Amino acid sequence: MKKSLFVFVFAVMATLFSLAGDAKYIFYFIGDGMGANQVLAAEMYLAELEGRIGRNQLAMTSLPVSSQASTFSDSNGITDSSAAGTCLATGVKTTNHTLGLDPEGKPLTTIAEILKARGWGVGITTSVSIDHATPASFYAHVEKRNEYYKIGRQLAASDFDFFGGATFYQPHDPKDSATTSLYQLLRDNHYTVARGYQDYLGKRANAEKMVLIQKHEGLSDNYKGKGQIPYSLDKKAGDLTLPRITSAAIDFLSSHNDRFFLMVEGGAIDWACHSNDAATVIGEVLEFDEALRVALDFYYQHPDETLILVTADHETGGLGLGNSDYTLNLQILKNQQVSVAQLSDKLREQYENNGNKLKWKQVRQLLREDLNFFDEVEITAKEEKELRQALKLTNHNKGSVKTLYKQLSKLADTAVRILNRKSKLGWTTGAHSASAVPVFAIGVGAEEFTGWKDNSELMPILLKNAATDASK
Asked: What distance in Å separates the CA atoms of residue 436 and residue 431, rounded to the nearest whole number?
């Protein structure tokens, strides 16, 4: 018994303090909008599905080091993704809406750029568009985060080895249609573009550098050109997933480089939080955690040479676990079959197909199919009145709710908010909050992430632990 205990303790200490030396493989996982409550909600939801109160531990919370980090920007107590992403990438706080520049507008150097200059392979991946704020923070330097075409040009010129995500917001210059498209710029800079995972498998062997994006064939109309891979709740066979993107990135980088840096963003967590869509948030946290498991499989093959950091750029939604009494009812969220965004699009399609008018019978049937309302989910007279009022607004062309990334149907928004209330979750905002975010780590130098941190402290620790000697 004593010998077994000694072996266990030694294994834990070896993991924590990384006796073998510098990291040759660094993974930077960023759950956009993922606060501690988003993580805990996912764990407690899984436990409730098993019929118990407690936690069903995720991969991220099982890592040996955990702490928290503050996220305020240089200009605001509540950061946006561009300022937070820039800080995570450079260790320097900047103003909201700024990418890769300090508060005076001077370019900052990112960890990805530093390691690329040292000869490392570099990969930048996300579940949203590759030119969105957080992934762009690692390669772009612009005054405004919405300068998407300019950001895309800097991506093409970055010489990074692998990019993966949904698509590009602006593959063409919106100010000049004659300007070279991003896809041509990528080809000019020796990038191979793969559309979908199977296309990647067919092209990887002959590719010098790779961009993996979702294919449009077979993609739901609700997601074409929308800047994200489908939410976990909305996915169909053949759709890109964050775990598959992560797997492709590791495969490509490890086959081309003896050292690499990979950033993986769960960008759609944030989008679902902006819509206050709890079931979809949990689905995205779980998919992000599955992507982490892909990296952990690599870690277990190279435990003395790998460092994995998991954190978030900020919290979104001000999610609270509890809205009335001392109970939670998270398992009720399993009845939601589609995201509020998908439900909104389905209602809007029915509305347009019926001469800009919906009947309660149609709405009731769709809510039964997609939310299990009136069957597994009991709807009170008061709640039905809420839904009918939303229908009335819809039929008077007043039925929309604007979120940061989606114009939602008032009906869909009302229905999901009713389900959220029944789950006993609460939201304080449709924007970001100043809540601290979780920090989890394993591998070389992981112990340095213990204790309360500011987000500006994370990148310097990663860089400090990156191998500088090519022989290591």
From this structure: 15
DSSP character for 234? G
pTM: 0.93
- CATH 3.40.720.10 for domain 21-320+431-464, yes or no, is yes
The alpha carbon of 202 is separated from its chain's Cα centroid by a whole number of angstroms, namely 27
Please report the DSSP string for 414-432 in residue order. HHHHHHHHHHTEE-S-SSE
Q: How far is the CA of 367 from the CAs of 352, 372, 374, in angstroms?
A: 18, 6, 8
Map out the domains of the chain as residue ranges: 21-320+431-464, 334-423
Q: Is 132 helix (H, G, I), strand (E, B) or coil?
A: coil
Reported as a single tens digit per residue, the pLDDT across 235-279 is 998 899 999 999 999 999 999 999 999 999 999 999 999 999 999
Distance of CA 242 to the CA centre of its chain: 9
Mean per-residue pLDDT, 316-337: 97
Alpha-carbon distances of 355 from 278, 390, 394, 409, rounded to whole Å? 32, 18, 12, 16
**Residue 401 and residue 415: Cα distance in Å, rounded?**
13
Instruction: Tell me the C-alpha distance between 303 and 307, whole Å.
Output: 8
Residue in 35, 75, 99 with CA at minimum distance from that of residue 432: 35
* Residue keyed to tokens 């191998």: 467
